[in-house]
Specification:
Elements lengths: L1 E2 L6 H4 L2 H11 L9 E3 L9 H17 L4 E5 L9 H13 L8 E3 L4 H13 L3 E4 L3 H8 L16 H12 L9 E4 L14 E5 L13 E3 L1 H11 L4 E5 L6 H11 L5 E5 L11 H9 L14 H7 L3 H11 L7 E2 L1 H15 L1 E3 L1 E2 L2 E6 L9 E5 L9 E5 L3 E5 L19 E4 L4 E9 L5 E9 L16 E2 L1 E3 L4 E8 L26 E8 L12 E3 L3 E5 L9 E7 L3 H6 L1
Parallel strand pairs: 1-11, 2-3, 3-4, 9-10, 12-25, 14-20, 18-21, 23-27
Antiparallel strand pairs: 5-6, 6-7, 7-8, 13-24, 14-17, 15-16, 17-22, 18-19, 19-20, 23-24, 25-26, 26-27
Helix pairs in contact: 3-12, 8-9, 12-13
Bound molecules: adenosine-5'-triphosphate and magnesium ion.
Length: 563
Amino acid sequence: MMVNFQTMSEEMKKDFIRERIDHDNESGRFEGKVVTRFPPEPNGYLHIGHAKSICLNFGVAQEYQRGPCHLRFDDTNPAKEEQEYVDSIKEDVRWLGFDWNEQEFFASNYFDQLYGYAVQLIKKGHAYVCDISGDDWAEYRGVPTEPGKESPNRNRSIEENLTLFQKMKEGEFEEGAYVLRAKIDMTSPNLHLRDPALYRIKKASHHRTGEQWCIYPMYDFAHCLSDSIEEITHSLCTLEFEVHRPLYDWILDTLGVYHPQQIEFARLNLTYTVLSKRKLLQLVEEGHVESWDDPRMPTLSGLRRKGYTPAAIRQFCDTIGIAKRENTIELPLLEHALRSDLEQTASRAMVVFDPLKVVITNYDDTCASEISAPVHPADETRGTRTLPFTKELFIERADFMLDPPKKFFRLAPEKEVRLRNSYIIKCNDVIKNESGEISELHCTLDPETLGANPSDGRKVKGVIHWVSATSHLEIEARLYENLFLAERPDEVDEGASFTDHLNPDSLKVVTAYAEPSLGSATCGQNYQFERVGYFCPDNTSTPEQPVFNKTVNLKDSWGKKQS
Ligand code: ATP
Ligand code: MG
């Protein structure tokens, strides 16, 4: 299903999670407390899909004002996890505008406790050590429509299970030799209840516990118990965990511990993007992008570097709401949220990309040599910037036509145009070089028109941007297109890869000519290059070598497409 704003049904806009919490509160469940958690696995950088989960979990906790939202690193898989990811996740959550108030946890902190719970299950006769592993187990487990086959280890004595589990912990067995399984129901139509693995042997070094453990809890075992230990009330997770919920409930009920409520919601899918850490890692490792924070990546760090604002992302998450069914959101909706924010907040600047020289033939010392222009036309309090005005200027080549059609309101022979924030000029002569190309325009300015309002009675419809040809800043501009050409790059034929859909022209680097005020731009500031688009300084930009990333076009394809 493709979702756009207009077709989003009322049912989907209605947030069933908050309704559920209200209901729990009214009935006195959890003593009216609301405690949520955001549980990333530190095996990659956060992406825009995670932002949806962050906004939901932290948002709910804030709204109900009764409990915090925990930040919990779900670090039970030693092979893939790294401190670098932990650090980046914290930075990104903070950047997005949320604070876990020191409620920072690691599932690995609970390894002792989790081991204890596993021993309890064995002692209660609800878990056993099994030597059937991997592929063989798939055969025992079977298919939903027929009962599975019981493991011959299923009825091992409690003593034997305890001894074997102890030996697993002490490293006496090879990886894969044994697993600890819950003893539930091999006939259940839900395969997750057919004696799922709870612990596996993994001889890997863990980013926090080092070599201390060689058995690690499975996600399903660690997650519900971590929620329980932290007394989370509402454990919000994505839809694929719906079929795991009976196991979540079984473990907590069988152990008789604090029992949070798991509630599932649809994960965010976006067009022209992949949102899986595994695939994003592949893009980095295979060099299709420069890094996790490459501005073409849908990671929060990539979006930040591209010029996205936290407010725009939060607004986007708010707009799409929380759905109960899988859906795909159109990328232009994200860009729409961004433009709405930047229109209000971005400083204005003039930058010429494809320069055509204009010589002001009547320029003399009665003309302004510096012009003051507002940083933001709708907000005087933002102050002004200074534009050097000189005899020779650059305008955009596309803003001049020798033989213009009727509705061309820019510059043409014998026509007038207003230079943004400056004078009205008239084109008197067109100078061509030996190969017949236009090399410069000779124009005259009207000294009466400086700073005047475009609607000052002079019939000049066009306003164009410009910079001084002699006093400007050369910048490197990085122009981005979508990273993928296909609307749904994940959908590929057998044998093909999502990387087949990569856009070979997703990055174009050009030189542009900017007003000097951009020399003091620093990372984290947003600019509207007037009539061109939104840009921001790259995090590698220096005063000597200014580099700007294109954030988004000025034009909004979202509104147009819908009408
Ligand atoms: P990926 O598929 O990218 O590896 P994941 O679900 O394995 O994602 P986690 O680090 O486990 O990544 O995710 C942390 C939290 O963010 C989980 O609660 C998860 O459900 C949620 N989440 C991940 N991806 C999305 C998404 N696309 N939309 C909404 N929530 C998401
Ligand atoms: Mg996960």
